[in-house]
Amino acid sequence: MANTQLKSDAIMDMMKEHLSTDAGKAVTEKIGLVYQINIAPKKLGFEEVTYIVDLKKGQVTKGKYEGEGKVDATFSFKDDDFVKVATGKMNPQIAFIRGAMKIKGSLSAAQKFTPDIFPKPSKL
């Protein structure tokens, strides 16, 4: 069941492309943090797919983090909630308050995780 197609996969693919553009490189320079994003098809903690959004190197990879040290912050979402946050339809703070997003790690790093780091909705 780990091969479930997530709506978030398409966003992560676009994020990879976005980070190779000038706008994406500006995001990388501005943030300089590494995020782990766990996305569950239906229920948090079950059958999660892990992505690493490395805003130090400007890369998005699927799977566990293999760089030096550890990730700055880890987020857990259900697929639909991640799509809402990434497209700007749900504020990340509201998602956290509602329990739609769980955070581990540095809260100051987590606060830099905003819809601004994603490609604009017109590209989604």
TrEMBL record:
Q: Which SUPFAM superfamilies match?
A: SCP-like
Residues in a coiled coil are: none
Recorded hits in InterPro entries, A to Z, give: SCP2_sterol-bd_dom, SCP2_sterol-bd_dom_sf
Cite the Gene3D superfamilies for this sequence. SCP2 sterol-binding domain (3.30.1050.10)
Domain SCP2 residues, every copy: 20-114
Signal peptide (UniProt feature, chain positions): none
A GO CC annotation recorded here is: cytosol
Protein name (Swiss-Prot/TrEMBL): SCP2 domain-containing protein
